[in-house]
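If your schedule permits, I should be very grateful for your opinion on a structural question. The matter concerns a single protein, recorded as an amino acid sequence and a row of backbone structure tokens. Could you please explain, in whatever detail you think fit, how the structure tokens follow from the sequence? I set the record out below, with my sincere thanks for your time.

——
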Amino acid sequence: MFATNTSAIPPSALMDSTGRPDRFLALHFSNLVWRHNIAEVMGTPRTAPDVYASVVGFAASIGMVPIEVKKERPGYVLNSLLITDAEGGRRVANGRHPRIRPQSTTCGASGLAPPTGPAKCLTSLV
């Protein structure tokens, strides 16, 4: 098995250069992995199902909560949420109020619930 940790590039964009596209996928750990025990698993159309299942099992075995991302997209789930919070911070900075969105039960239980509001999130990205 061969995995990338990037969330900026979908694994299918890299799979042919690996020489083993059927054994390649993404295993993306959240920022501050020691605090947020989340790992996103994203395969490609050519990732073998047993490889995908093994990596999901591996993530769980090391104490991560695996999020199985079924559709490839840059940013995956975690960074999409982060960008939403950063956009909220930008709105606050510009005098507009962000919409409030509910936290996912699974993500909140695993420590993803943000400790700060959107304005703090924005300043932490700069």
In short: The beta strands are 2-4, 24-29, 38-42, 65-69. Confidence is low (pLDDT under 50) at residues 98-111.
